[in-house]
Design a protein that fits this description.
With 153 residues, the chain is an alpha+beta fold. It has 5 helices and 5 strands; from the N terminus they run ββαβββαααα. The chain has a 5-stranded mixed β-sheet with strand order 2-1-5-3-4, covered by helices on one side. A hairpin with a 2-residue loop joins β3 and β4. α2 crosses α5.
Length: 153
């Protein structure tokens, strides 16, 4: 099957019931997307599929023929961070950092749909992304900062 990941086409020959998460990590070598719970409850494995935030641990590769997948590696580079990634650094969001790729992917999807989110909007959309370190106030502040920069650009 054919799948586009971060703008690069990949021909994938694997069992169709294999979760996208394992294809990304084990077959393609993109390890920024993390395994957290395996049941789509924590958000650590969040990626974008055709522009929508999705939990890659529960998406079967056989259902994604022709889809465009974006992982954290496709959002920005160390030389050119995305606005959201820079806001994460500016607000020192990450502590342990394990959940942060999923957090950034969810926040990016939020800002792609709503460039002026309220605290309630942020809390609602981000509620499915768990952070064991409890950096939620910094996550909210970073999203507000990124939104302001996007609107000012």
């Amino acid at each position: 099957m054919q799948l586009t990941i971060n703008g690069t086409s990949h021909e994938i020959d694997i069992e169709p019931d294999t979760p996208l998460l394992w294809v990304l990590r084990d077959e393609i070598g993109l390890t920024g997307t993390k395994y957290g719970c395996g049941v789509a409850q924590c958000g650590a494995c969040t990626v974008h599929v055709d522009g929508e935030a999705q939990r890659s641990c529960q998406l079967q590769i056989g259902d994604l023929e022709g889809a465009e997948v974006t992982t954290i590696e496709g959002v920005g580079t160390p030389e050119k961070l995305s606005v959201v990634q820079q806001a994460w650094i500016d607000h020192q969001v990450a502590q342990c950092g394990y959940c942060q790729s999923g957090q950034v992917m969810q926040a990016t999807a939020l800002l792609n749909e709503n460039d002026s989110p309220t605290d309630d909007d942020i809390d609602e959309v981000m509620s499915g992304n768990l952070c064991r370190c409890g950096t939620y106030p910094r996550i909210r502040a970073a999203i507000h900062d990124a939104a302001a920069k996007i609107k000012g650009a």
